[in-house]
Amino acid sequence: MTGSAPDHGCDTQNLKGDAETPKIREIALRLAPQIKAYGADTKRSWLQLISTAVPFFVLLGTMVAVTETAYWLTLLLAPITAGLLVRLFIIQHDCGHGAFFKTRKANDAIGNMISVFTLTPYEHWRRGHTYHHASSGNLDRRGQGDVETRTVAEYEAMTPLGRLGYRIYRSPVAQIFVGAAINFIILQRLPLGRGFRDSTSRRSIMMLNLALVFVFGIPMALIGVKPVIAAYLPMMWIAAIIGGWLFYVQHQFDGTYWRKGDDWNFHEASLDGSTFFDLPPILQWFTGNIGMHHIHHLCSTIPNYRLQECMDTYPELRETAKRIDLRESIKCWSLSLWDEEHGQLISFRDLEAQRA
Predict the structure, then answer these.
(1) How many CB atoms lie within 10 A of CB 351?
(2) What is the pLDDT of residue 8?
(3) In the chain, is it the N or the C terminus that has fewer CB atoms within a 10 Å radius of its CB?
(4) Is the pLDDT of residue 34 over 70?
(5) Residue 46 and residue 40: Cα distance in Å, rounded?
(6) Please, are residues 119 and 238 in contact by the beta-carbon 8 Å criterion?
(7) Cα-Cα end-to-end distance for the chain
């Protein structure tokens, strides 16, 4: 299918007949209507929500309670609690796709509740993420809900200061260790850009900010500001690093997909432009199977707890996947520029070698 594609569902109509990638298109055309059947199971959804939220709040409460007497324990529990928050974010993410429950009302209610703890305005984020799904891998529609990616020509046309800024932006320090936390904790509090222009997004941001005043303000008034911040801030920072890492490597990798105009295809972008981040079982659990990102992009209405089932049922989804593991995900960080001439993502060092 050329042009934009709907975020919700698995459209199988109007696939292009380009002979360059017949296998990918054949698989997408054949499997899209079949994997759509892997929809929400209400009992499993509630079980996942409860089994994630209960230990999250128990651990968070423990972290807050011991900050004054055993802060070492607070920090020790922070990574586990952060992992549970990432899992809650995946549930919020599924709600935004209308995938976690069978009704829009239930998805929106739970998604908005979780957003108070992920610090991510539900409706504002959902809108940007919907655009991401409809335009992922499309060079003509970059800039919303994705990691900014410049082509070689665009980078070379920048001023020296602009190139320096882009290099800093693409660095792991800026993207993950500092930038991700700043985005979640600060930038998502501010209705900037599209969030300011769009009334629904603006309302979503401001309503969440108001909710945060009550949800975090009440315990701060009762037990003090320091214990709450001392517990939540390091946990949130770790969760932001995990989330930022996941989002980056899902589309920024060797062999990814970028096309312009009518050369762009939704189904090809889903399978060719998204990774299968093959994680150890425990990390796969904490990240809600989101590593099977190619399946998620092919059909976003599949809830996270059914992605593995879908992969196991249709081996083609494993065979055609752009698989990376933890070690390989580190290598993705050097790739920063799209080389249109050679159709590949390259590093700054690669560009310098080409120009030498």
Answers:
(1) 16
(2) 39
(3) C
(4) yes
(5) 10
(6) no
(7) 40
Write phi, then psi, for 41 (nearest 5 degrees): -115, 110
Tens-place pLDDT, residues 190-223: 988 776 788 899 999 999 999 999 999 999 999 9
- What are the tokens at 76? 């020790």
Tokens standing for residue 214: 């009550």
Alpha helices in the chain (DSSP H): 22-35, 42-65, 71-96, 104-118, 122-135, 152-156, 160-169, 172, 179-185, 194-197, 199-223, 225-249, 266-272, 281-286, 293-298, 307-313, 316-319, 326-331, 348-355
Query: Quick check: 304 and 292 in contact, CB under 8 A?
Result: no
Count the neighbouring beta carbons within 10 Å of the beta carbon of residue 62.
16
Pull the structure tokens for residue 303: 């809830």
Residue 71 structure tokens: 């802060």
Residues with Cβ within 8 Å of residue 161, at least 6 apart in sequence: none
- Kindly indicate the confidence band of residue 302, based on its pLDDT and cuts at 50, 70 and 90: very high
Handedness of CA 138, 123, 287, 290 (dihedral sign): negative
* HSE, side-chain direction, 13 A CA sphere, residue 140: 10
At residue 9, does pLDDT exceed 80?
no
- AA identity, residue 81: T
> Could you state, in order of their start, the residue ranges of all structural domains in the chain?
22-355
CB neighbour list of residue 197: distance below 8 Å, 6 or more residues apart: none
Q: Across 14-23, 98-107, 167-176, which has the greatest mean pLDDT? A: 98-107
User: Could you tell me the pLDDT band of residue 14, with boundaries at 50, 70 and 90?
Assistant: very low
Average pLDDT over residues 10-14: 41
Return d(Cα 145, Cα 94) in angstroms, integer: 16
Distance CA 10, CA 69 (A): 53
Dihedral of the alpha carbons of 130, 131, 134, 138, in degrees to the nearest 10: -150
Q: Give the tens place of pLDDT for each residue, 255-272.
A: 999 999 888 988 888 989
pTM of the model: 0.91
- Residues 74, 230 contacting (CB under 8 angstroms): yes
Q: Cα(121)–Cα(203) distance, rounded to whole angstroms?
A: 9
Q: Are 251 and 146 in contact (CB under 8 A)?
A: yes
